[in-house]
Write a structure and sequence with these properties.
The complex is a heterotrimer of chains A (260), B (280) and C (347). Chain A has 260 residues and is mostly helical. Helices cover 79% and strands 0% of the residues of chain A. Chain A has two domains: 53-222, Orthogonal Bundle (MetI-like fold); 229-253. The model of chain A has no long low-confidence stretch (mean pLDDT 86). Helices cover 72% and strands 1% of the residues of chain B. The two termini of chain B are 31 Å apart. Classes of the chains: A mainly alpha (260), B mainly alpha (280), C alpha/beta (347). Chains in contact: A-B, A-C, B-C. The interface between A and B is large, with 87 and 89 residues.
């Protein structure tokens, strides 16, 4: 019994630690004062101002645009690559797998500056394009890494059997392989989306021409006192994500029940 | 199999966006001259020499490693028990709890870090409570403790998630067998559960250590830019002083350092290819 | 499966349509790169309305930041706002375009004392935007004596309450001035001494900050800080307990000006913008909003009386007698960079 209470208490403390700053952010988005730390009464004005703040809205748009496109592209490229890698053998497989690990193991600042030198070397102007390319680059490895285990779990003879029965390789891919590894693809895609939306360092070094995402906007704002508008935006995003997760969870439950 | 050819686009992508940039960094690190003008480049070890000959820079590296090690250890100590507790819950509750670890990561990490300023400041929430209780306010911000707190806060989920996913996969029969053979709870944990969870622990350690050793944002926001970490030095060279040679040299040093550390830890971790899948 | 495919298809269509929409805007663009918090944003809207030119606005934190960004290329800006010593360097390195005065009729409105200065003797490259001093700001309720010297920043009594600027030239200047040297010192021995001073000061410093210094002093997080005069005005407005002082050892007198970089893509719009920013009503609007001092006398007259007479913004001639203007360190810039890197690396 004591043990159980202790466990509960510990879980509570950890979650308090995780959520304290988030609660602070949400509470202060309703604070009727610009300064952080002092409560001056309830207001909704930051939410109203949010929809008038073109700089923040533009940053939000860029963030979402980059997150959607980079996660889509990296999921497609990464899935194809994973299937290829799965069927490879020997030394070349090892080389590719290790190269694939580079962006995972490399500190993001090293990835960021190396990409920055590449764009300078190729004389590509910094902007949305360089940011997108960089995001795809650091997202693909995670997709590959989450699809590969699913391929290993798949019965290797399944696609072969399909082809023996007259399916073309493409048909076997579409009807046999992809459905088998779908959970891995979805995990990879979600991971890419999360990574992209939360990235700061790589975007920070690889953007220009006034193109900024939310992280960069927040970073430059942190230097002159964060505008509570950002708190309002994060509260909305947080609630949005929460609802999305609840829906996904609910649907997963229904699916499980149907199957079960 | 025809599917092998599927790797071709990715090989091209890898070469252009991973291999060439890294070679460029190496090239910068081993040359000197005007950073923006390739025609002035000369082969030189000057940047590497500059780093290793000055105690100042070595000290920064040691400091970064020290803070990263401490934060990794704290994450492990805090993270393992919670991962263990959650993994023992029934599946439904388990999923909700683990999801609660993921949710904060969907909120911008700069904002989460920034929120700590509100909590820790001299007139912040924690100090207001302390003062209401009649104590002197504490210096909570702009020191190493604040940096460590920021690291632990941001990277704790990276420790918990892989450990959790390994723990849930442990075959329950093994534990039952151990108990049948007369092992008590502590022995079972020490001899069966913990060794089986080691791959997750290793993944967790590297997932926390790498971002911690290279961060420049946390030391900037919570540390008040008072003492640089290696990440700050690299950022400074690329963005303010414009000495890309020295910046690249430090990037290479940091990279090599991490790869060596990882090579050492991966000795414990035989199931390397499954690593990425174990992340979630 | 089908569902997944249709979702993917939908996303692709969505993506293409937004990217097309983004490309659809065909207004002429003007890329402006300015210091953070250094303009009344309404002024940009007004410019867009009046001239039908879209302003792409971006900010930097220090002169060095700006220089690296410009030098590394990959981003083209049409108007930038460097300080005098950086203009000197940029002219020397041929990074700036000459400005056609015929397109800047409002140039006549600039006060005489801001023309023909050393960094641009013939006013060929730059049009002054703001000017000011560097000094100490302190909270009178937290500091018991009036401060008047850079040496006060080394007073152990204030340990943990001092905020310094995270800016190479400005922070080195504080130490050089404290030691009684010129803030343009080219003597490596003097610079090393300044480095040692700043390292000695480190344990007393709460943090090194950029623009966040304003928040720290207004909220009472710190008691003493080094700031630019304009920021001081804005801070005192928010918290009347603060006071600004120009230390007796002398300080830095600085000028920020608008210039056009060599690779500017829209020089015509850039000149329109510079002319617009120099128009007295606009200059007054900016000066009023950010708290800095305008070099346009007609604009100053439009400001509220108490601002015009504020010694922080518009110090008397005697008060700025003991000041120095930054010069381009030219060939010894590497020494500055190295020393600054070493200061920030020290624990």
């Amino acid at each position: 019994m004591v043990n159980k209470i202790l466990k509960r208490f510990y879980t509570f403390l950890i979650f308090l630690f995780l959520y304290a700053p988030i609660i602070v952010l949400i509470v202060f988005s309703f604070n009727n004062s610009k300064s952080r730390g002092v409560w001056n009464g309830f207001t909704l004005k930051w939410y109203i101002e949010l929809f008038k703040d073109s700089q923040v809205l533009k940053a939000l748009y860029n963030t979402i645009l980059i997150a959607i496109s980079s996660s889509l592209i990296s999921t497609i490229l990464g899935t194809i690559a994973a299937i290829g890698i799965f069927y490879m053998n020997g030394f070349s497989k090892k080389v590719i797998l290790n190269l694939n690990y580079m962006p995972v193991l490399n500190p993001d600042i090293v990835t960021a500056v190396s990409l920055m030198t590449l764009y300078r070397f190729l004389k590509i102007d910094f902007g949305l394009l360089t940011m997108l390319l960089s995001h795809i680059t650091f997202c693909i490895p995670y997709v590959v890494l989450s699809v590969l285990p699913k391929l290993k779990q798949m019965n290797k003879h399944l696609p072969e059997a399909a082809m023996d029965l007259g399916a073309t390789p493409m048909y076997a891919l579409r009807k046999v392989i992809i459905p088998e590894i779908m959970p891995g693809i979805i995990t990879g895609g979600l991971m890419a989306f999360t990574l992209s939306i939360d990235d700061f360092v790589i975007s920070f070094f690889n953007t220009g021409h006034g193109v900024s995402n939310l992280s960069i906007t927040i970073y430059s704002m942190a230097r002159r006192g964060i505008n509570p508008v950002i708190n309002a935006l994060s509260t909305l995003m947080f609630i949005g994500m929460l609802i999305l997760l609840l829906i996904i969870n609910k649907r997963a439950d229904i699916n499980n029940e149907e199957r079960g | 199999m025809k599917f092998k050819r599927f790797t071709i686009p990715y090989i091209l992508w890898l070469s252009l966006f991973i291999v060439i940039p890294l070679l460029l960094i190496v090239f910068y690190a081993l040359s000197s001259g005007d950073s923006q003008n390739f025609s002035t480049f000369e082969f030189s070890f000057a940047s590497l020499e500059r780093f290793f000959s000055s105690p100042v820079y070595i000290k920064v590296l040691i400091r970064s490693v020290r803070l990263a090690v401490v934060s990794t250890v704290i994450c492990l100590i805090l993270g393992y028990p919670i991962a263990y507790i959650i993994s023992k819950e029934n599946p439904k509750k388990r999923n909700v709890l683990i999801l609660m670890f993921v949710i904060p990561m969907w909120m911008n990490f700069l904002l989460r870090t920034y929120a700590w300023l509100t909590l820790l400041g001299k007139s912040g929430i924690i100090n207001s409570i302390i003062m209401k209780l009649g104590f002197q306010p504490l210096e909570l911000l702009y020191n190493d403790t604040a940096i460590l707190l920021g690291m632990v806060y941001n990277f704790l989920p990276f420790m918990v998630l892989p450990i959790f996913s390994v723990l849930t996969k442990i075959d329950f029969k093994l534990i039952e067998a151990a108990e049948d053979l007369g092992a008590n709870k502590i022995t079972t944990f020490r001899r069966v559960v913990f060794p089986l969870s080691l791959p997750g622990v290793m993944t967790g350690i590297s997932m926390v250590f790498i971002p911690a050793v290279s961060t420049f944002v946390i030391s900037d926001l919570l540390g008040g830019s008072k003492a640089s970490l290696i990440g700050n030095l690299i950022e400074q060279q690329f963005r303010y002083t414009g000495d890309w040679h020295f910046g690249s040299a430090m990037s290479i040093i940091l990279m090599v350092f991490i790869l060596i550390t990882m090579a050492l830890t991966s000795k414990f971790d035989k199931e390397k290819e499954g690593e990425g899948g174990g992340l979630w | 499966m089908k569902k997944v495919k249709s979702i993917a298809l939908l996303l692709v269509i969505l993506l293409i349509s937004i990217s097309l929409a983004a490309c659809g805007e065909d207004k002429p663009k003007l890329n402006v790169y300015n210091w953070g918090d250094y303009i009344d944003m309404d002024v940009l809207d007004q410019f867009e309305d009046e001239f039908g030119i879209e302003v792409v606005y971006d900010t930097f934190a220090t002169n060095e930041d700006l220089y690296v960004k410009l030098k590394q290329g990959g981003s083209s800006y049409d108007v930038i706002f460097p300080s005098e010593y950086m203009i000197e360097r940029m002219v020397r390195e041929d990074l700036l375009e000459k400005i056609d005065k015929a397109n800047i009729p409002n140039f006549d409105k600039i006060g005489e004392q801001f023309l023909g200065l050393e960094y641009d003797p013939n006013n060929e490259y730059s049009v002054p935007y703001m000017w000011g001093t560097v000094g100490i700001i302190y909270n009178k309720t937290m500091v018991n004596e009036p401060l008047d010297s850079w040496a006060d920043l080394w007073n152990e009594q204030y340990a943990g309450q001092i905020v310094m600027l995270k800016s190479q030239r400005d922070t080195l200047a504080v130490a050089l001035k404290k030691l009684g040297y010129s803030l343009n010192s080219r003597n490596e021995k003097e610079l090393e001494e300044a480095k040692a001073e700043l390292i000695k000061q480190k344990p007393l410093v709460l943090a090194y900050m950029g623009d966040e210094i304003k928040d720290a002093l207004i909220s009472g997080e710190a008691a003493i800080g080094v700031v630019w005069s304009g920021d001081a005005v804005a801070m005192i407005r928010e918290n009347p307990d603060l006071a600004y002082v120009i230390p007796k050892e002398g300080t830095n007198l600085w000028f920020d000006a608008m210039v056009i970089p060599k690779n500017a893509q829209n020089k015509e719009a850039a000149e329109k913008f510079i002319n617009f920013m120099t128009r007295p009503d606009i200059a007054a609007k900016n000066a009023d909003y950010i708290g800095y001092s305008s070099p346009v006398p007609e604009a100053v007259k439009l400001l509220p009386e108490e601002v015009q007479n504020d010694p922080v913004s518009y110090p008397t001639a005697e008060e700025i007698e003991n000041t120095e203007v930054f010069k381009d360190p030219a060939d010894i810039i590497q020494v500055y960079d190295r020393i600054w890197t070493e200061i920030t690396s020290e624990e």
